[in-house]
Amino acid sequence: MNEALKRAIRRSFEAAAPTYDEAAFLQQEIARRLDDHLDGMKIAPGLILDAGCGTGFGLSLLKARFPEARLLGLDLAHAMAARTRDRHAPPSGWRKWLPLLAPHSSPLTAVCADMERLPLGRDSLDMVWSSLALQWVGEPDAAFREIHRALKPEGLFIFATFGPDTLMELRAASADIDGHRHVNRFIDMHDIGDALVHAGFSNPVMEMERITLTYEALPGLLRDLKAIGAHTVVEDRRAGLMGKREWRRLADNYERFRKDGRLPATYEVVYGHAWAGRKDKLEDGRQIIQFKIEKRKAGLR
User: Fold this and answer.
1) Which of 54, 96, 151, 227 could be joined to 19 by an S-S link, Cβ 3.0–4.6 Å?
2) What is the DSSP string of 256-292?
3) Domains with residue ranges and CATH for the chain
């Protein structure tokens, strides 16, 4: 991804930060379902990173599940990271007393940074959680390598992202509008699994489900996408706004999908987790070979 496109994505989520929580009902539901995937995993992480934390909803779930863990939120948009800090900050009058009243409460930090260039040391994290952020990463392979680098051996990476059938109705309705792409491309589940293995992860487990939201009219869907910062940011998008004729054509095309009086918006949700493994390679790809030399019982001459 070029830097101009990454800046456009950052600006989009900076602008959406004040309205995000009001419209992020789907994002919150998917975060809850991702949290359910941790059921049955016997882990006790000491330091957890939420990569692409948004306004911090996922961190609330992690805080409830792992009350002893230290939590770190990271987001490309400074306004999102600031919302996370505000969301999890204790009331101002209680801050100086919190260590005494709740000495075992989990500290939480939120930073503005890029998950393709994590500002974290090697083998520093026990777990990385990422809910609906990977689809905005320009180079998933780079992000997976960075996450693998920062995880401790046998650390857990768990995530949710969107698959290629996401917003398929909007993609089909806009296909013949102006020759430009109006829906972002999303990575196939099998390609994600391959990329994880290539980055050094072991035993990736992938699942997929489709969730369909319905709307009375197309503007409702488009308003929700804009409110969460998810309106299209693509390299070949048109420079200006569509005209009235193009909007009418888009709306007419979308009407073909109306069912039971409602317009559907389909989301393909991919859930996955993988383990960092023993991490017996250096960052440059060289293999670490360990020799176990036992003391010989017989004396050497």
Assistant:
1) 227
2) GG-BTTBEEEEEEEEEEEEE-----B-TTSPBP----
3) 3-164+185-211+268-275 (3.40.50.150)
